[in-house]
Fold:
Amino acid sequence: MHKAGFVNIVGNPNVGKSTLMNALVGERISIATFKAQTTRHRIMGIYNTEEMQIVFSDTPGVLKPTYKLQESMLNFSTSALVDADVLLYVTDVVETPDKHSDFVEKVAAMNEPVLLLINKIDLSNQKDLEKLVTDWHELLPKAEIIPISAANRFNLEYVMKRIKELLPESPPYFDKDQWTDKPARFFVTEIIREKILLYYDKEIPYSVEVVVEQFKEDNKRIHIHAVIYVERESQKGIIIGKQGRALKKVASEARRDLEKFFGKSIFLETFVKVDKDWRSSDKELKNFGYQLE
Structure:
């Protein structure tokens, strides 16, 4: 008997979904930072054994969109409700259950199994946690509620046990040596964007998109040419920094992570260009690979 299925991860942007994804898959697939809205695409990580294939899918955080990019991000999350064999709804001890009531109603209407994971329980106490479990049970009575700490790996073995029990019988969807559905270029853009999220404040990181224009690989080395797009000339100056120091720091840190990720020497060239108001442009969002209705 072989089991296989899609386990889709949804929830608020800053509840630790990416940390959970990486812990479950065992690979550094989703970028995990302290910034909200880190994940912009739906990212698959594939867990394989001889008897099983679990296709985990990390989605952008559930939010109320204020511009077209956020509309695309919400579309990725909503689509995850349609094709899930098991849904992991991730919340934490800070988020109130009524924060995204419209989305929660859609989850409540699902027929597929839902595991509601309350993350960061190390930041709470028993009394408050019990009340939170009761409140969530009222909203999602069919869901199995599991307190976890993704960062500390608390209760993750039990989560994996339940996922394996709930998966349907099925042949694998992907080759057994495949661990993601994304190409190498995608992870280059994610790693560079992660560094920008870490090193720049306020609106700058959310106005940035990264495109890999060249990816040449041989046995020992990868040559990468990446363009960082911003919406304003003033943002371009901030990204580059005085005498180019800020951009050099981002490129240096990204190159270090890329060498770990690919296991090869990396030659990384980064450039900054202005693409005015790209977050609100259907044409530009499609060019950057976002899903629009």
Summary: The longest strand covers residues 221-230. The mean pLDDT is 85.
